[in-house]
């Protein structure tokens, strides 16, 4: 019977350092190969026995995952933020690859989810839309910053309008500054049409996913937010409970407690020390956090969420905690509707857990 082997890969643009260990932790192979599909697969095929592979989530991770997953028993793309043991001892490619193999053998790695083929196109369109939206916003901020840096007030969005640009440019007396702003206006004019095209492509692709139509039945989850959720989550069955989705979305409260137990009359009992809260978990998916918090904020002034928030506040809950509770409620509803294939029913708002 062939024994399992554990491969750690330290991936770089040109080369990849590979270390393979057996079940006893003994070194089987240490090699350096080109970061190319053919070279990596040739090395994998040269090994016998069930092979477990790990590498960190980097620029090449998605590509390497697709290359290797059909040829090995298991692929774990691990979260580099959680691999604290890699910072101990010598920092070099070979030690890093060996530590990854050792962590994999010990079952101490946290995997990063990589989605299915069905949502890949939507994921790319969402990334394109977000990138162009961020670039557009950044350019607009730079334009206003230049005017404000010269003591020129720029309230509203008139400073971006094509019809008013000459009037704004005339207020800049320095030729170099005026030319700089002109170039930024040109950049903005290029980005806006691209952003619209990316948005249209994203929404068109999202309509081919049934989950988007289900999520759109939830108030405040419009076509864009629904597309973002589907592209990010991929499948609702990743999360067995709503608490897991809350944690992934940055809606879980982090608590801290020390000295939980004490001895009284010769018996070990739980201490009555209060549990300290440390805010929301920071290691989360920022996109989903913005989606659910934004939906809760936007729905706070309209039904059916306004009545729900008022009930929470009447119990003495602070406004910010009530908004967080509503964001969790929307996330829980989205998960339930997606799993069950239902549409939103406002009558079940108070009953959804």
Describe it for me?
This protein has 353 residues and is of the alpha/beta class. The protein has three domains: 101 residues, Nucleotidyltransferase, domain 5 (2-Layer Sandwich); 91 residues; 138 residues, no CATH class. It contains twelve helices and nine strands. The protein has a five-stranded mixed beta sheet with strand order 3-2-1-4-5. It has a two-stranded antiparallel ribbon with strand order 6-9. A hairpin with a 2-residue loop joins strand 7 and strand 8. Helix 4 packs across helix 8, helix 10 crosses helix 12 and helix 11 packs across helix 12. The protein is globular, with a radius of gyration of 26 Å.
Keywords, please?
single chain, 353 residues, alpha/beta, Nucleotidyltransferase, domain 5, 3 domains, 5-stranded mixed β-sheet, two-stranded antiparallel ribbon, 12 helices, 9 strands, 14% strand, globular
Report the structural category.
alpha/beta
Q: Low-confidence segments, ≥5 residues, pLDDT <50?
A: none
Strand percentage = 5-15%
The profile of the biggest β sheet is: 5 strands, mixed
- In helices, the fraction of residues equals 40-55%
Q: How are the strands of the biggest sheet laid out side by side? A: 3-2-1-4-5
- What general outline do the C-alpha atoms trace? globular
Structure summary:
The chain is an alpha/beta fold and 353 residues long. The protein has twelve helices and nine strands. The strands form three sheets. It has a five-stranded mixed beta sheet. A two-stranded antiparallel ribbon has the order 6-9.
């Amino acid at each position: 019977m062939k024994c399992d082997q554990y491969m750690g890969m330290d991936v770089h643009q040109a080369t990849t350092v590979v270390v393979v260990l057996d079940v006893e932790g003994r070194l089987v192979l240490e090699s350096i190969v080109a970061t190319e599909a053919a070279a990596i697969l040739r090395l994998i095929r040269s090994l016998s026995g069930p092979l477990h592979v790990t590498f960190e989530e980097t620029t090449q991770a998605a590509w390497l995952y697709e290359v290797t997953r059909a040829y090995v028993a298991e692929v774990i793309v691990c979260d580099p933020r959680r691999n604290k043991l890699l910072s101990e001892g010598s920092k070099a490619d070979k030690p890093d690859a060996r530590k990854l193999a050792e962590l994999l053998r010990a079952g101490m790695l946290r995997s990063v989810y990589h989605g299915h083929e069905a949502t890949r196109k939507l994921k790319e369109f969402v990334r394109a839309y977000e990138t162009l939206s961020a670039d557009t916003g950044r350019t607009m901020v730079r334009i206003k910053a230049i005017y404000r840096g010269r003591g020129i007030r720029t309230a509203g969005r008139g400073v971006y309008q094509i019809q008013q640009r000459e009037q704004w440019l005339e207020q800049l007396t320095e030729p170099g500054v005026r030319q700089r702003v002109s170039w930024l206006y040109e950049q903005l004019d290029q980005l806006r049409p691209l952003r619209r095209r990316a948005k249209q492509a994203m929404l068109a692709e999202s309509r081919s996913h049934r989950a988007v139509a289900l999520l759109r039945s939830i108030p405040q989850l419009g076509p864009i937010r629904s597309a973002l959720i589907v592209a990010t989550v991929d499948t609702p069955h990743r999360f067995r409970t709503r608490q897991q989705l809350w944690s992934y979305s940055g809606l879980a409260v982090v608590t801290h407690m020390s000295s939980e137990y004490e001895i009284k009359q010769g018996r070990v009992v739980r201490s009555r020390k209060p549990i300290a809260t440390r805010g929301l978990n920071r290691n989360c998916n920022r996109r989903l956090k913005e989606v659910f918090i934004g939906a809760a904020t936007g729905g706070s002034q309209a039904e059916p969420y306004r009545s729900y928030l008022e009930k929470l506040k009447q119990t003495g809950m602070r406004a910010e905690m009530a908004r967080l509770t509503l964001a969790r409620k929307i996330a829980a509803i989205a998960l339930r509707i997606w799993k069950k294939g239902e549409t939103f029913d406002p009558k079940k708002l108070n009953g959804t857990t």
